[in-house]
């Protein structure tokens, strides 16, 4: 129950926990990922690809990636930053 | 009696027995992903049944070989339903980090459910990630230890998987890769195939998995021998590589050091 609650909180915060913080990278470029709260996804600014998070699990198989549009709302709005920890 | 780890895939939705010998296409990575998604609901039960519980011993051995210890950051590749992941978390404790990565979302769902269903302090250090063993979603030199249980045999590009393991390991870190052994002894190889045909298949039939048995037998035939695995590891950049056989030569464990 506690664990389920923590998963829901993480999803609600659209973030990545402490364990994954600083470890995850884009599977293709191996560069840091940025968390986008609006789309609940992880953005690889180095190659302009976003990866979804489903049920609190980052989906980082290369074919899960989608090209980030130029003017859409994928949160592509600033410096690339490392994954934000929710803790 | 030697035991077998059943790492097969199958359609859990029951198939007509007339399709028992239908050859299932599992040549590419996508096919194998579908396969492991389908087997997810019965994977744990079948492993226990077919190996008579021995797979638990083999997995503990595999973890011992990594040298993983408290506070370490460790990775379990092809984690499936999480057996090795949970054992690793017991080694590194609540102050360590354990990441389980697999390309099967269904297997990860089972692993997540297992994590949620029982609470231990060390399980809080576990996170699951959907990812590909040949394109690991991690920065360089992140992990003190890596495990891979009954996964390398199912990876199409084994060389790339070894290179990725090398890349994400810290210098001096070890990877322990447990799998079926492709024996160079004809008797052992024949016995292994006999076991699949006369033990695994009859048991698997009860779960509606008989038609997929060809994958296991062929996957072992197409696997690398211990010596070939050692050579592959050295080519990938590891400084040391040793392959150990056990359970009468049916199982093997490759231990590599960056």
TrEMBL record, chain A:
InterPro entries: Trm112-like
Transmembrane regions listed in the UniProt entry: none
Protein name as catalogued: Protein preY, mitochondrial
Ranges for region Disordered: 68-87
Native source organism of the sequence: Linum trigynum
Superkingdom to which the source organism belongs: Eukaryota
Family classification: Belongs to the PREY family.
Automatic annotation (TrEMBL), chain B:
PANTHER family, alphabetized: 2-METHOXY-6-POLYPRENYL-1,4-BENZOQUINOL METHYLASE, MITOCHONDRIAL (PTHR43591:SF24), METHYLTRANSFERASE (PTHR43591)
E.C. designation(s): 2.1.1.329
Assigned keywords, A-Z: Chloroplast, Methyltransferase, Plastid, S-adenosyl-L-methionine, Transferase
Family matches, as Pfam families: Ubie_methyltran
GO molecular function per UniProt: 2-phytyl-1,4-naphthoquinone methyltransferase activity
CDD domains, sorted: AdoMet_MTases
Species of origin: Linum trigynum
PROSITE patterns with a match to the protein in the record: SAM_MT_UBIE, UBIE_1
GO annotation terms (biological process): methylation; phylloquinone biosynthetic process
Function of the molecule: Involved in the biosynthesis of phylloquinone (vitamin K1). Methyltransferase required for the conversion of 2-phytyl-1,4-beta-naphthoquinol to phylloquinol.
Location(s), subcellular: Plastid, Chloroplast
The reaction(s) this protein catalyses: demethylphylloquinol + S-adenosyl-L-methionine = phylloquinol + S-adenosyl-L-homocysteine + H(+)
Top EC group: transferase
Entry's Gene Ontology cellular component terms: chloroplast
Protein name (Swiss-Prot/TrEMBL): 2-phytyl-1,4-beta-naphthoquinone methyltransferase, chloroplastic
């Amino acid at each position: 129950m506690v664990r389920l609650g923590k998963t829901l909180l993480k999803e609600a915060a659209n973030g990545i926990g402490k364990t994954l913080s600083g470890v995850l990278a884009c599977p293709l470029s191996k560069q840091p990922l940025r968390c986008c709260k609006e789309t609940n996804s992880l953005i690889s600014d180095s190659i302009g690809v976003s990866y979804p998070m489903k049920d609190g699990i980052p989906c980082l198989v290369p074919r899960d990636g989608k090209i980030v549009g130029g003017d859409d709302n994928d949160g592509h709005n600033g410096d690339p930053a490392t994954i934000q920890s929710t803790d | 009696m030697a035991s077998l780890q059943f790492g097969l895939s199958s359609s859990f939705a029951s198939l007509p027995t007339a399709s028992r010998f239908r050859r299932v296409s599992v040549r590419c990575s996508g096919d194998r992903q579908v396969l492991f998604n389908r087997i997810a609901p019965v994977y744990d039960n079948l492993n226990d049944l077919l190996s008579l519980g021995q797979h638990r011993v083999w997995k503990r051995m595999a973890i011992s070989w990594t040298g993983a210890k408290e506070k370490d950051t460790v990775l379990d590749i092809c984690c499936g339903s999480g057996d090795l992941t949970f054992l690793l978390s017991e080694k590194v404790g609540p102050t360590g980090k354990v990441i389980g990565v697999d390309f099967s979302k269904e297997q990860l769902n089972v692993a997540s459910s297992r994590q949620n269903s029982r609470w231990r302090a060390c399980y809080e250090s576990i996170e699951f990630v959907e990812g590909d063993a040949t394109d690991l979603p991690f920065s360089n030199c992140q992990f003190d230890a890596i495990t891979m249980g009954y996964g390398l045999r199912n990876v199409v590009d084994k060389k790339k998987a070894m290179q990725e393991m090398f890349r994400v390991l810290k210098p001096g870190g070890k990877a322990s890769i447990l799998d079926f052994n492709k024996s160079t002894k004809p008797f052992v190889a024949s016995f292994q195939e006999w076991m699949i045909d006369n033990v695994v298949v009859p048991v698997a039939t009860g779960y509606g998995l008989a038609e997929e048995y060809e994958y296991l037998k062929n996957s072992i035939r197409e696997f690398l021998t211990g010596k070939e695995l050692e050579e592959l590891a050295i080519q990938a950049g590891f400084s040391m590589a040793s392959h150990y056989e056990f359970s009468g030569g049916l199982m093997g464990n490759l231990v590599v050091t960056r």
